[in-house]
TrEMBL record:
Keywords: Signal
Protein name stated in the entry: Lipoprotein
Signal peptide: 1-17
Superkingdom: Bacteria
Ranges annotated as biased composition (Low complexity): 25-45
Ranges where the record places region Disordered: 21-57
Organismal lineage: Bacteria, Bacillati, Actinomycetota, Actinomycetes, Pseudonocardiales
Amino acid sequence: MPILRTAGVLAAALALAGCGTEQHSSTPQSTSTTSTTTSTTAPATTTPPKPTAKDGKDFAQCADGSCEISIGEPVTIAVAGNSFVVKSVADDGLEFELQLASGGTASGTLKGTCGSIMKFYLDGTGGGTGTFCNPDNAPQPAPTPEPGVFQLQLAGLNDHQAVVRMVTG
């Protein structure tokens, strides 16, 4: 029976080998990937709309002394007994002459739409310019009528058309 004893010892040895304290972990390490998407939106820029004249090209609207018209070429416009003569129109403004009913004349150039207002005294005694600007590019308001004063304002430029406001008081 020695063979049986050897087999029993071998079986016992194998059984003990399976009960050792050494442990092997086969648990895989987990990895995770996080994807972050950041979107940026460019700030909106506001471009002021191109100006349009309230009275269009209807120069007869100026006869009563107040109008807002679009001018694209040389023209003579009657304004409350005075004559506004446009000599030339450019992409940045216009050149004009004003013939007052009192016999006085004035000439100049309207450029820049920041709110420049040219004032001429209807009695022919002189004139001047005032300028104002809206900080947010908002449309400029029309000049307020003043007694005895002819006022011109370049309200805007649009495709070789000058939008001009004329106000008499």
